[in-house]
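User: Can you model how KG4 sits in this protein?
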Amino acid sequence: MYKDTAKLKFDALKGNKDALILGIESSCDETAAAVVRGGREVLGNVVASQIDIHKRFGGVVPEVASRNHTLALPGIIDEAISKAGISPDMLDAVAVTYGAGLIGALLVGVSSAKAYAYAINKPLIAVNHIEAHVSANYIADPLLEPPFCALVASGGHTLILDVPDHNSFVALGGTLDDALGEAFDKVARVLGLPYPGGPNVERLGREGSPSIALYKHPKGVRGDLSLSYSGLKTAVVNYVNTLKQKGLPVPVADVCASFTREALSLLVKTVTEAVSRAKRKRLVLAGGVASNGDLRACLAVAGRENGFDVTYPAPALCTDNAAMVASRAYFMARDGLGLADLSLNATSRIAF
Ligand code: KG4
Ligand code: ZN
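Assistant: Here's the modeled complex, given as structure tokens:
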């Protein structure tokens, strides 16, 4: 019964430019819900970060994240709907991140979304977290349309994509090991900076000089556009630990600046090469690391020199949020994609 009505209502989304979609996101340590109209207009967007809870552990503890999502999500959904100034029956669909991410954390969002969609008798749309990050750019720039290339750089992913249309994502390159955000977080940790490390490494790096030769990074772009951060991360850890063992002071700001320069230099060259190979005129940035000012600045320069524009969302839409999930669901539903039923499961990995 639910399945049949959900399908009919899902099909009606194709022609509905004002579709109101509730997005739910719980893949890592942010519990989030948002209501978005027409894929681009955010009516209510609530993010409850668990950063303070995980800080004392120096990183996200999966079990703790799941438990806190369970506690927070019902209130967060109500708040997003109330901020949007609507009632639940006015929603046209419920969208949820089903992967990739921490399996227990994802399951909380997926179960809640299923229950909510069933209760209000509206279709459920399953959203890929990485694709959702890209969609944040449709909110940031209301006129943005594909084709373009995208760099998704977060705590879990560093991926260069070609996006020829709203619903196609082709991997052009990316990391073979650690994600860039993960490397930022590990460097911060060895330097004794609080979690999440990225913003702290960026802030301190501005006060330092990128003068330390940490690592003999291969300078040239690799033919397969692959990247690697585990060697650089280990080099920083060894450098810092050696100083500590010798009882010497660690030049924290200089390490931050030197790591950032090293981490970004090959990334910028590789992304530039990807955009050129795909023959695109625009690059969009997504994921938590996309809020890094140095990365934005370096790519803006590369864009000017190589003939492509660079778009990026405000920091609050770069890090995990549910507005991007609702936005992604809108563009999927418009093309008849993504309808899920109550057997939807979470998945920790999704390959491109
Ligand atoms: O997208 P996101 O919120 O969660 C994941 O899907 O992983 O990204 C979080 C990551 C963390 O590793 C955090 O340290 C990094 O993004 N990050 C940054 C900055 N802000 C957040 N990395 C570098 N510079 C920043 N300003
Ligand atoms: Zn993310």
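A couple of observations from the model: The mean pLDDT is 95. The radius of gyration is 21 Å.
User: Helpful, thanks.
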